[in-house]
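Last lecture ended with a question: if I hand you only a sequence, what can you say about the shape of the protein? Today we answer it with a concrete record. The protein is Preprotein translocase subunit YajC. Below, first the input exactly as provided, then the predicted structure, then a couple of comments.
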Amino acid sequence: MKEGNGNLLALLFPFIILFVFFYLFIILPQQRREKKHREMIKNLKKGDYVFTSSGIYGTVSKIDEKTVILKLSENVFVKFDKSAIQEVLKKEE
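The predicted structure:
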């Protein structure tokens, strides 16, 4: 019986190593990025200068529960989903 258990462990060992590798180098960093992005969205304020995932720069004009309105230039406003905000470049002072 000891031989059978050893063979089973030898068969499972590469899969265990592969799972640990995927968790440490793929899943965990992705979870950290998502958490950081959620915090950034949560801390958005009117007047912040932001960059969207579609490549548009603008100033936050209004924030709703799920959307944000960006001012791109004088009298030009665009509505985005909050998740489209990629980065806050300059916080309101």
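Comments.
1. The chain has one helix and five strands.
2. The chain has two domains: 1-42, 45-93.
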